[in-house]
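QA checklist item 7 of 12: single-chain prediction sanity check.
[x] sequence parsed
[x] length recorded as 294
[x] structure emitted
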Amino acid sequence: MFNKHHIIRYLQARHLSDGGYFFARVIPSAGMDTLLALKTLQMLESSQIPRLDIIRFFTNEDAERNLNSLAALYFAVSSFAALKEPLSNFEKYKPFIESVATNSEVFKPKQFKLKQTKSFALFDASVNTVYLDVVEGEAKTAFYLASLCKAFAIKEHTKEITAFIKQLQNSDGGFGTIKGSELSTTYYATQALRLLKQEIPHHEQVTTYLHQQIEQVNYLEEYFWAVESLTGLKANIPNKQRILSFLIACHKGNGGFARSQFMGIANIEQTYQAVSLLKIFEKYDLPVFEEITS
């Protein structure tokens, strides 16, 4: 169904002269795109991963002091870990990680006030990107923090991170406080708890919530959040054939994937999410990749 080499060529075309990747194909490269391109190439078992270029990109990011946020540091550290490179160059950031872990503001539930007028209210998340960023990021910081704490064996903040995540859980099993349970928040919350080797509370309710949500998703990232969460819970994934059909519709002529079958251009984030889903479905013996003969 899907040609691995076609997807690989899409990513190769977004590999830039500074060593990293960016879906728009203009320098500077982006840390997130570089990490996700690397992970996607690894899932596709590409023999042409430019490991030295990726190392050079993040080494330069470090030298230019661009790893000054939790997200930027997460992308760099995760890339080195994926390449099985030593993390010694990033040890100097442990005090920064500690400062985030001890910042009480990090562990306060986020709030977002929607502006309303008589003529229009910004309730439509599909057009309100600021709103989307806040909702999607509700537990993302905790996930990045948990990942970095694990990478550097910082165990003393497990209790605080776990407590913060658990307070985001609702009676329906999902996680999220801004507008109730959200797939994105549930994904990042459950992923973080797994990294910290903590039990996911109300396991059955979480599974039920995810099964209900997967019936009404509209975008590729929503399928990704739901299926990855269910996989982590070792729960059944419903409607696999329908999801595969959705991925086919999101697959663009350049080899990448867009977030919707009706709108959007291909980008590296959605391509990573699509390939992640395909690799999961492959474990169910579904024919997702074409057999390549040479």
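[x] summary fact logged: The longest helix spans residues 268-282.
[ ] second reviewer sign-off
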